[in-house]
Design a protein that fits this description.
Layout lengths: L6 H12 L4 H8 L3 H11 L36 E2 L8 E2 L12 H7 L5 H8 L5 H4 L15
Antiparallel strand pairs: 1-2
Helix pairs in contact: 2-3
Length: 148
């Protein structure tokens, strides 16, 4: 499948790439697939992106920390599980829980992520240039290809 890249598409790709948007989001905005964006960026020699590396989660208890079994777990203790429930080493955090929550502050930070559809939508619709912000009927640029 041939992708027709206009100069407007190319300049928008460069701007969005330099803004650090993910390839999937750039593709959505320009009307191309993620792979089309990656291919064009490589052919244009745009700077490589460092892969997003997820930090390994350390589920080990600090030295000297008490191991809490299910039988020892009581109200007000963090019930974050550690290990494989099928093994004898399985235990719970046991630190004091945040009021009204089943976990301590550290595990609440890992368990609860604030995410609203409105926040995701507004963040993903930031234009790269002023021309992209205006509708085509008002002198803006329509970057979506017609698929037919």
């Amino acid at each position: 499948m041939t992708v027709n890249w206009t100069p407007v598409h190319v300049s928008a790709l460069i701007a969005l790439w330099n803004d650090g948007l993910p390839c999937r989001e750039i593709g959505r905005r320009l009307g191309f697939t993620k792979n089309a964006i990656i291919g064009k960026a490589n052919r244009m020699g745009l700077p490589k992106r460092s892969p997003s590396v997820r930090k390994a989660v350390n589920d080990k208890k600090p030295p000297g920390a008490e191991v809490i079994s299910l039988e020892q777990l009581t109200f007000g203790m963090c019930s974050w599980p550690h290990g494989d429930p099928q093994k004898d080493e399985f235990h719970f955090c046991g630190q004091p829980a945040v009021e009204g929550k089943p976990y301590c502050a550290e595990h609440c930070a890992r368990a609860y992520v604030i995410s609203t559809k409105e926040a995701r939508t507004s963040a993903s619709h930031q234009p790269a240039t002023a021309a992209l912000a205006r509708p085509a009927s008002m002198g803006g640029v329509n970057l979506l290809r017609h698929r037919g």
